[in-house]
Every structure is written in C-alpha cells, then in structure tokens.
Amino acid sequence: MNDLAVRELRILVAVERARSFTAAAQALGLTQSAVSHAVNSCERKIGAVLFDRGRHGARPTPAGERAAAHSRRILRLLDALPDEARGASTKVLTGPLRIAAFRSAAVQLLPTALTRLAAAHPGLAPEVRIVPEVGRGTAGEVLDGRADLGIATLSGSFELPAGAVAGELFQEEYSLVHPSGSTDPRALPLIDWAENCSSYTRAWWQAQDWLPAARLDAGEDSVVLSMVARGMGMAIMPRLALLDAPASVTVTDLGTDRPTRTVGYVTTPELARTLGVRALIRELRAVAAVGGPA
Hints:
Layout: H1 6-18, H2 21-28, H3 32-46, E1 51-54, E2 57-60, H4 62-90, E3 95-101, H5 103-108, H6 110-120, E4 124-130, H7 137-143, E5 149-153, E6 165-179, E7 190-193, H8 201-206, E8 215-218, H9 221-229, E9 235-238, H10 239-242, E10 249-253, E11 260-267, H11 269-272, H12 275-289
Parallel strand pairs: 3-4, 3-5, 7-8
Antiparallel strand pairs: 1-2, 5-11, 6-9, 6-10, 6-11
Helix pairs in contact: 1-2, 1-3, 1-4, 2-3, 6-12
C-alpha cells in the first residue's frame, strides 16, 4: 500500500519547518538516517521530489510545501480527535485553539472574545499569532495548517482561497487622523503602511483630490499612529487601529462616502465543524453583535 503513515507526516512537517534533516531528527528524537528514510518513503509514495538537498540543508519544493501544508492540517485533525470525542460526550471543551489575527484585531477584538470563551470553556487553550494581512495573510496560515481560524479583512482585493470558508463579523469605517492642533492637515504628508495595500480604500484614495501626494511609509498601523501623534503627517485609518488613539491626535469622520472594510474570519470546512472553532466563532459573533470592540 502507498498510504502515508502518521509518523511520516510528522517527519515531513518537521523537515519543512527546520529546513534540515539533521535538525528535524534532533527535534523528533530520531536519527538522521531515519528521517532521510521517511522522507524518501514519502517522495516515493507521493511521486514527487519534496525537498532540494544540499549544503544549504533541505529546502521544500513547491510539492513539498503543498505536502507539508496538507500534512499539518491532517495532523491537526488527528491531534484534535480525542478532545473532540470527549467534548461531544461531556460537553466540556478542551485542547489548543490556534488563532491567526492581524495586529489591530488581536489587540482590540480578541481579548473580549477570548475572555468570554474562557468563562464558558476554561479547558480551551487559545494560542494567538500576529500575522500581517499582506500576501496570503491569516487565510494562508489557516490553509497551511498553522492556524485553526484566522481573523481577516474580507473586503477589497480579498478572494476566498479554495479550500477555505469565511464569515463576516462587522464593517469598520475609515477616518482621517491628524495631529491635534494642526491648522491644515491636508498640508501634511500622507502616512501609509503595507498592510493597508489590500484594502479597496486605494480606489477611494485615488478619487480624493485633497489627499497629499507626499507619502511616508511605515511598517504597521501602530507606527503610523505614533508618527501622526508626533506631527509627522496625517493618515486614513480603520476604526480598530484608532481605538487607543492618544489625545495628541484628532480623529475626523470622513462623511457618508467614507471607505469601510469588512472584518471576518477564515477557517477550513473540516475545522469549522470542530467544537472549539465553533465556540470561538460564537463569541466573535457575540462581540460583533454589540457593535464590535468598544
């Protein structure tokens, strides 16, 4: 039979993570030859080269990256099986719950949702990772098997990847933010950050002749806000990023035609049915139902 063994999947994932047969062997408590033999077996069963071997270590090929992503998802379901079975019997939810979120959602949305989740299900153990919403973003973390659920921005250029399911939580508006006391915010440079690139606000920006042509680039929204507070420029920012705005900045409503973005969640069909993910989605929806983060 050419079925992959669970042990082989774990070794494949370890090699992809470590980029080295030797390091993977040390992490798993195996010999290097045992790891090499298992990878060779995986490649033979799959019918593709999974790693480029060389002095650089073991770099996953495109086939290897895809195989590792599927392996992580399979292993996650296998690892969750005991907790799922016990939870279905006892109604007590236990085990890890892996969450990927962009920074402002992790700061402003998750604490309330996770506090509610802990009160209802103290046996769950959330693990939160901050993932910028650029490139494949939090959805990519879910599809690669590194997260059970991702908090994502679903509007603009976002396209739901194959093999994922998503749900909307709430809409958040963008506002103009500028240094308090500034007599002419439009004369200041516009401060931007890479994570904002995927938002459809780009089209809105292009239609605004009052926005300055001068631009400053910052790494993330918290840096943008800090730069605005120091008088370095103005910015167009979403509500989640402005909830902790200091008194040294002024937030101005952009009116009825202001841009908005959709905040939601992304998971996989199989994980969407697990008890822990379902409980988390309920709490996220409960927070959203009362207007989102305060």
